[in-house]
Amino acid sequence: VERRLAAEDPYVIRMKVPEGSSTFSDVIRGEVTFDHEEVDDQILLKSDGFPTYHLAVVIDDHEMQISTILRGEEWISSTPTQLILFKMFGWEAPKFAHVPLLLNPDKTKLSKRQGDVSAASYLERGYLKEALVNFLATLGYNPTGDREIYTMEELIELFDLTKVKKSGAVVNFEKLDWMNKQYLQDLPLDTVVERLQPFLKEKQEDIERMVDVERQRATTLIDIAQALPDYATLPDYETPILVWKHADARETVDMLNMAKAYIQDASLENLEQIETAIKDWINQHEWKMGAMLHPLRVSLAGRKTSPSPFELLYVYGKEESLRRINIAIDRLNGS
Questions:
Q1: Do 284 and 330 contact (CB within 8 A), yes or no?
Q2: Are 246 and 255 in contact (CB under 8 A)?
Q3: Nearest to 310 by CA among 285, 283, 284, 273
Q4: Catalytic annotation on 245?
Q5: Average pLDDT, 10 consecutive residues per value, the chain (335 residues)
Q6: What predicted TM-score, i.e. pTM, was given to this entire model?
Q7: What are the residues whose beta carbons fall under 8 Å from the beta carbon of 1, sequence distance 6 or more?
Q8: Separation of alpha carbons 281 and 265, rounded Å
Q9: Which of 112, 201, 203, 245 is catalytic?
Q10: DSSP assignment, residue 93?
């Protein structure tokens, strides 16, 4: 040793692990004991004098007065090394809490190699920040166990490390979809409209009712953005799609004329009231629902598949709805 020191050979400084064992109380996992025979004599200073992770993190945590260290369970094996170092320095060690890993559905560790695991990428794909926070905060943990949706304030107030599960948490993106749907429906409409703007090719005004309708079935903001163009213009549809089942053009015109008369005096300000009122009106006249609602919906949308006629009336309002119905009647009359 003296000869090599005199020759100024490069060297490292290692931690000499004492005999015995280290025991600590993990906030999540309870009491954990490691026999020192399982602990390596870790390098603390490299040959260039640069500190390794174990030395640096122990000093850093002490200097910053860290009270509790939270980290993934894969780091639990490094805890005895750090506990020994804290003791060597004569410092009180922080508490440790080793949280479970995030897992793929096949129980393998969540990895960038197996899919998109960046939270920011989900914001770019139209997920709401509130839903992402809620989703991530409740992976392997639930503050009360009796519900899934929590505000940020509730998550902060109810947070309790002892309720974090020991086992790995499977990342179920179907649950994220469900959560995002809930937030899309529950957030104030003007907030959803504002959040939607970056996903539109250009800023759009007066889209509140379209957004209000589409958010009821959308999963993400992008879903809403992709649906809005369908409301913009009436497509050049084929007239036969207006006719319902065994009806003919004449019967369809009669139905649309009666719909026009009804709409002239109707209130189209509340979606639920529109649906209730129209269905009551149809039942009062003992018509078949499809005989009235099918041509009404197609005349408003110009497509076989579209939102309901009640939603379309709510979006378009009285003037535009009547204009589209008149176009349908003219088509059926051969104009």
A1: no
A2: no
A3: 273
A4: no
A5: 92 94 93 94 94 96 96 93 96 95 84 68 94 94 92 94 90 94 96 95 90 97 96 93 93 96 95 96 96 97 94 96 96 84
A6: 0.82
A7: none
A8: 13
A9: 112
A10: P
